[in-house]
């Protein structure tokens, strides 16, 4: 992962322009925040549609900068990806998440915790040692951890991606294809990837109620995923009507404000202990 830093070392500051206003993040302040463990882990529950039980949670990074105040994750993650800090940030995210969740993940209910991986991290040298070392250090079973990988990762080096994912899967880790539908990955990768879950992006889930063609599209993605042996997670479910439509379509899991907003780990962890086996 060090090579990610070396490769992009030259970019010390970068201007990222989100829709509303620009935030100038300094390389040094994000580096210090990560190194000093000043970021926080929030968790957002995954809910099994059939039972309405929480079976796990996604780890989402939060950063409140002393100078800028709260910085949106898409802003500081994008900055980290562009400046090479993403290697350090990923190491932080894995260790902070496993440290907080270790005890709960060893409980008999066997909940899952998912960790986001930026596209290039999965195929960076050292990633496999990082994740397996952290599992050993925190004494967390590999089967409790789901790695969320976006389609973009697959485009960069598909052969390497498939090889790394296969080795991780063989060690017991689970893999989810994140933000499905918004990237440009060819459908042919879907059949080759050793993934166990497919997460349909929120932009498609928003259409499930009120847009007939949008609903048909989501229904078709769910059927396709099931035929390939993948469980489906719908992202960004904000109301009961959407949840009920997704249930009719056979969607396995949902995640969204309706079933639980991202919240500090300490608030969500007790809910995971009541989780059912995945
Ligand atoms: P993502 O992986 O697609 O995560 C889901 C995003 O949707 C989260 O945004 C979450 O707060 C938001 N969300 C969940 N349910 C709802 C809903 O019902 N409605 C709406 N409108 N939004 C919902 P967040 O936390 O701002 O994170 C943004 C992105 O930043 C994530 O998108 C992920 O790609 C990235 N990210 C966050 N934490 C990490 C991390 O530790 N490492 C890496 N590599 N990326 C991270
Ligand atoms: Ca994700
Ligand atoms: Ca996602
Ligand atoms: Ca998304």
From TrEMBL:
Coiled coil segments of this chain: none
Top-level taxon in the UniProt lineage: Bacteria
One GO MF term: cyclic-guanylate-specific phosphodiesterase activity
EAL domain segment(s): 23-276
Protein name per the record: EAL domain-containing protein
Biological source species: Coralloluteibacterium stylophorae
Span of the entire protein shown here: 143 to 420 of 423
């Amino acid at each position: 992962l060090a090579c990610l830093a070396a490769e992009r070392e030259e970019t010390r500051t970068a201007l990222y322009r989100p829709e509303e206003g620009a935030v100038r993040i300094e390389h040094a302040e994000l580096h210090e925040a990560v190194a000093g463990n000043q970021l926080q882990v929030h968790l957002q529950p995954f809910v099994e549609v059939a039972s309405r039980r929480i079976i796990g949670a996604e780890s989402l990074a939060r950063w409140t900068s002393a100078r800028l105040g709260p910085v949106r994750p898409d802003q500081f993650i994008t900055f980290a990806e562009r400046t090479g800090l993403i290697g350090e940030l990923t190491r932080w995210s894995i260790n902070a998440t496993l440290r907080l969740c270790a005890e709960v993940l060893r409980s008999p209910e066997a909940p899952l915790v998912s960790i986001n991986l930026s596209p290039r991290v999965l195929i960076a040298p050292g990633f496999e040692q990082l994740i397996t070392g952290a599992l050993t250090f925190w004494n967390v079973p590999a089967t409790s951890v789901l790695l969320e990988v976006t389609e973009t990762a697959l485009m960069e080096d598909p052969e390497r991606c498939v090889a790394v994912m296969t080795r991780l899967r063989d060690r017991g880790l689970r893999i989810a294809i994140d933000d499905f539908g918004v990237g440009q990955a060819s459908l042919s990768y879907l059949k080759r990837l050793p993934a166990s879950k497919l997460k349909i992006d929120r932009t498609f889930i928003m259409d499930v109620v009120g847009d007939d063609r949008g609903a048909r599209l989501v229904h078709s993605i769910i059927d396709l995923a099931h035929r390939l042996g993948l469980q489906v997670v719908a992202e960004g479910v904000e109301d009961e009507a959407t949840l009920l439509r997704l249930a009719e379509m056979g969607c396995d899991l949902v995640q969204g404000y309706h079933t639980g907003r991202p919240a500090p780990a300490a608030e969500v962890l007790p809910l995971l202990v009541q989780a059912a086996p995945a």
